[in-house]
Amino acid sequence: MIDSAPPRVRAGTGMSGLKDAFEAGKAAATGAIVPLTGDPPALVMVFATPRYDLPELLAGIRSVTGTALLVGSTGSGEIVRGEYLGFGGGVGVLAMTAGPYRFAAASASEISGDLDQAGQALARASRAKAGSSPYAAAMLITDSLLGDLQQFVQGVYRITGPKVAIVGGAAGDEQRFVQSSVFHDDAVLDKGALVLWIASDRPLRVVTRHGWDPIGAPLLVTRAEGTEIAELGGRPAASVYEEQLGLTSTLAPEAFWATSILHPFGLLQPDGRHVIRVARSKTERGTLMIHGCVPPVGSAVQVMGGSVDSLLSVTDEVVDDALDSQPDAAVLLTFSCAARAMIFGERAPEEARRLQASAGAVPTFGFYCCAEFARTAGVLGTHNATLTAVAL
Amino acid sequence: MIYDGPERRVARDAALAEYRAAIRDTTRLNRLFAILGEPAPLAILVDRVLLALSEMFAADVVALLQPAGPDDLLPLGAIGLPEELIRRPFSGLEGSHAAVAINDRAPVLVENALGDPTMDLQLAELGVETAAWLPVLGSQEVLGVLVLGRCQPVPFTRSDADMLMAMTYRIGLVVERARADEAGKRLDSRLRQAEKVESLGRMAAAIAHHFNNKLTAVMGSLELALDDLAVGRDARIEIANAQEAARQASVVSLMMLSYLGQSFHAREALDLVATCREALPELICSLPPKVQLRTEFPEAALTVRASEVEIRQVLANLVLNAGEAMATGEGEIVVAIREVPASQVVPSPLLSPGWTPGAGPYACLEVFDNGSGMDPKLLGNAFDPFFTTKFTGRGLGLPVVLGVVRAHHGTVTVDSEPGRGSTFRVFLPLTVPTQDRKRE
Fold it and tell me: Which residues of B26-44 are buried (b: 16+ CB within 10 A; e: fewer)?
């Protein structure tokens, strides 16, 4: 009898905190390929601290994985099978066989200007390399400092349409916001972006949750400029934001981040959900700089609140929903926000542990990013302070 | 102490929900109107509107469709339609959701698209489960249809439909205004092009005049030089060659001037019939031996105000052109002249853009040949200066006809078909009514 079942994915993870970049990469990759039992990996995913000599790190990994497709980025902490590698923690490597999937990637560096066009170009190129399939996922890994990342997502969506899941995260630099890097094979891309096309015969489902609740009244964005909200309800955005929090005095710009990370904006959706946006800083002009994607003029936002427990509570739901859609999943890819890890503080390792506990035998792998990509309804697919996952 | 019992809390929550819904609807409209108020080309505005609608209504697919045939609609813009589907037409057939929305001028809401046989295939292929179709109304007509689809079992509500209808009214006005603006710009562009052509024409005429004057001086000098040279000198041959070249160049300059409607020839009352009758014998001698020429001339004179030299040139160019159209060297040419009322003069937009006939009658000089004919592409170039399909041609015969006729306030038309021959008609305004004319 001929077994017509599709081949299963075999996946392994490895990590290393060695100081030497080459040796760290080599050690993590060596651990990752063990479950592949000698088969070459079809995809290698890498998330690492930006403190490494990154070309050396990739060289170390590829000394083990050979020329297998490699994608990844720097971040603000890695998630490797229940372990949380904090700032400067090291490198996590995932190696997997193709199973029923086909992987292909397209990337670009030194991106400036039209992110929509860049998204279209990379989605088109990666899809062309992967070939056609009934379903697919487009995993996006971008430099977090490119600008309005929703423009990139919408460019990708123009090519994919709703049948292709869009997921991923923006590279980080441990919250310094100076330089983040994207990896593609042995290249370290500055101002880069990458689309990994995962061709599939069955639907791939992206799951996203945040655990925030509204604490303020809906506010109308009446003026936005570039990456800043200038006015809420016709008044300076920073003043209105501080009023919503019940503050009696204005926040000093240097103290703003400590407060705003605990009280992001929720962009009100038609079904009552909120898409989270974090204000990173307050300018002297009283505007609020948003990380990644500014709520457009005419949209309604609410100031949100949450606790470590409420944010952590979504992990089980995310894992369950993701694995329900892929009962024979070999790996759960997770993209959590660097802001969440900061809020968790000493409890930061808890999220990685809870994710793995919920996933059981399915290894979890991912990183803390500076914007999470997850399109679930409509064109909006960029999030902050959110946990996102997809099972393969 | 303020009472805060369950009823009060329920009422407060309901009021809060209403308030939030009102805020949401206001912001949706504000956002859309802000986009539509931006000074941008229509395609960009449409794209921004569709992106905003996708966000506002959590719609996975949003497309603005416009009629592209009797039963088809094509996206003017779309979000969520992948490239391979965006060029596939939507159905506008009787009974389709788009047709119902257009005919009823009202929204069509589809709550279960998965089992709906009238759902467009591309939406079904994308897994759209609920959809809304809304007519986009202009001030006079339905301009298209806006369709939104969700790939989740979340139907569009009547409230959504009301909001979307309010939006489509505004979208329709903007689409209509943009189309009017673009039509105006196209007209402006054509006018600017016409001005440019006129300016180039003036420049070309000036150059042709200049060359002609210089060539006259060259030919005169060569004549004097030739007189000074003794018979038998080799240089006389070179000078004679130079004279011939200069003469030919002068002819081209004069023909260019004719094409540009500039002429040194005086115009006077002229019997077109008599002029053509006198010119034809010489032309017949120039035709291939197996080409027959027949005339259909009226008895009465048809008087036009024209230069005899130029009329002869027009006739010669048309007849010789007809003779050259006989690929096999044999065939028939018919030269006819008749009087036609202005209503029967239908100018070619290509040859006489913007020209309209006057009130009075016209003389029509028609030259028919049953030669090789011309396809539309060739016909489109036939009157361009220096365009020729003949190895030895100058490409100025038909342009000169056009220039001379234009200068005489007339027009030229052509009917031609490959393998069936061509009919050139020259219309010139008559100067004396027929009843006052008598042939000698």
Answer: ebbbbbbeebbeeeeebee
